[in-house]
Design brief:
The protein is an alpha+beta fold. The chain has two domains: 169 residues; 171 residues, Heat Shock Protein 90. It is built from 15 helices and nine strands. Helix 5 runs parallel beside helix 7, helix 6 runs antiparallel to helix 7 and helix 12 runs antiparallel to helix 14. It catalyses: ATP + protein L-histidine = ADP + protein N-phospho-L-histidine. It is an enzyme of class 2 (transferase). It comes from [Roseibacterium] beibuensis.
């Protein structure tokens, strides 16, 4: 049994506007969802009663029950439109729910009692089973509103008692008669229905409490997430300005614009410049991640020639490749290869893939970028002959702040954000990114895009709308 505290809590929720609205909407939503299941049951029972008992009475009761279903359907639309603010509307809906419940339960009770009256011998298994089924259905699906459930079960309970006393009044049997056995069995059934109804109601209340806790936790999580995003954005912006000045100053020193750099300072200044570049990349990645998660990263889509895109990306990383002693080759697409995309964002993705391929390759090796058409799709592949990626590492490869080699002595550093950002940019293009790899042999990352048709080229050249992800 529910304790007094739980009952009082449930009562308080019911009488609050938000609590009552939730109960009413849950009740009417489930009522309308189960309308065809109820109709199928009513029609089956009416057909059986019409064949074995009185067809006129069966048809009349079915029509009355169907009428209450129509009223419930109309009431469901009104309750869905109720905002929960106007209490008079809530009162009206409650009264009509009670009226419909009384009509429906009374029609069903009259129907089963009439079947029992037509049976002069052999017990009342059929009408009692119909009534038990209706009561169990109510216990299972009407637990959102205890007052409505009690009203329906009270009417069914009267019908149970009428049938239970029917043969006792008819025959006045001795106590050892099966008639009395049927009577006590019906009493046990009533107890079972009352108990199971309470259990369903308790479970519904627990679900509401759990839902409330989940919502509260969700609100706390959202608040923490917003604070984190604001912190990252503020820190990143505050760091960018002084870092830009430091990088510019170091560049001037390295180029000799402020005079020749003493030999013993060149190494230290070079390290400072390199770390400044690393920090700038980290800040840019954090800002990009924050924009994507906040839905503030803008995309300007237009038809893009993939061969030209790849050539531009390779040229932008040429200096880096030369320093590492790695050759980058391009295998262009022979057919017309155009996609709908944001060139600057796609260059960002390509630069990340090329940078990773170069970092994990040995001096003297080759990185190949291939463009090919695959039916209605275009694939861009970046293939290296580096160390490879172990199996089962995909979650770390595309995760946030993760590295496949997360040890303190890893060869290649990084923020662990590049591929995660690249994946999100690619997905904003309705494309996909994946890879195949073998340890000690190399890795191939590939991007698959939808290929533009000629008519789409013309349409895209006339208009290149901006899109916010």
């Amino acid at each position: 049994m529910m304790d007094l505290k739980a009952l009082w809590s449930a009562r308080s929720q019911w009488f609050s506007s938000a609590g009552r609205e939730r109960h009413i909407k849950d009740y009417m939503t489930l009522t309308n969802q189960l309308v065809w299941k109820r109709h199928a049951s009513f029609l089956t029972v009416a057909a059986l009663a019409a064949f074995y008992y009185d067809p006129v009475l069966a048809a009349a009761c079915y029509i009355l029950i169907a009428l209450t279903e129509v009223l419930d359907e109309r009431l469901g639309r009104e309750s869905a439109a109720w905002d929960g603010v106007d209490s008079s509307v809530g009162d009206s809906i409650l009264r009509r729910i009670g009226r419909n419940t009384a009509l429906s339960a009374t029609a069903i009770s009259i129907f089963v009692i009439s079947l029992a009256l037509q049976q002069t011998s052999g017990g009342h298994f059929t009408p009692l089973f119909f009534l038990f089924s209706a009561s169990l259905f109510a216990a299972m699906y009407n637990s959102q509103m205890m007052s409505v459930l009690l009203l329906r079960l009270s009417i069914y309970g009267v019908a149970f008692l009428v049938i239970a006393f029917l043969d006792i009044i008819r025959f006045f049997p001795p106590l050892d008669s099966h008639v009395w056995l049927d009577f006590f069995t019906i009493m046990l059934v009533l107890y079972f229905l009352a108990d199971i109804s309470l259990k369903f109601y308790q479970n519904y209340q627990k679900q509401l409490e759990q839902l409330k806790l989940i919502r509260e936790e969700n609100e706390r999580t959202k608040a923490a997430y917003e604070i984190k995003s604001q912190f990252l954005s503020t820190v990143s912006h505050e760091l960018r300005t002084p870092l830009t000045s430091l990088k510019a100053s170091l560049d001037l020193v390295n180029k000799g614009a402020l005079g020749e750099v003493p030999e013993h300072l060149k190494r230290a200044i070079g390290i400072a410049a390199k770390n400044g570049e690393t920090l700038a990349v980290l800040i840019d990645d954090l800002l990009d991640l924050q924009r994507i998660e906040a839905g503030e990263m803008k995309f300007r889509f237009k038809p893009v020639n993939v061969n030209d895109l790849v050539t531009e990306a390779v040229e932008s990383t040429a200096d880096f490749a030369a320093k590492l002693g790695i050759q980058v080759t391009i295998t262009p697409c022979v057919e017309d290869g155009r996609i709908n995309g944001d060139p600057s964002r796609l260059i960002q993705v390509m630069n990340n893939l090329l940078s990773n391929a170069l970092k994990f390759s040995e001096a003297g090796s080759t990185v190949n970028v291939r463009v090919e058409t695959l039916g209605s799709r275009i694939r861009v592949s970046v293939e290296d002959t580096g160390v490879g990626i172990p199996e089962g590492a995909k979650e770390r490869v595309f995760g946030k702040f993760t590295q496949v080699d997360s040890s303190d002595i890893r060869k290649v550093g990084g923020t662990g954000l590049g591929l995660n950002i690249a994946k999100q940019i690619v997905e904003r293009h309705d494309a996909s990114i994946d890879y195949v790899s073998e340890l000690g042999v190399g890795t191939t990352f590939f991007l698959d895009f939808d290929r533009l048709e000629d008519t789409q080229h013309e349409r895209g050249s006339l208009q290149a709308p901006a899109k916010v992800a």
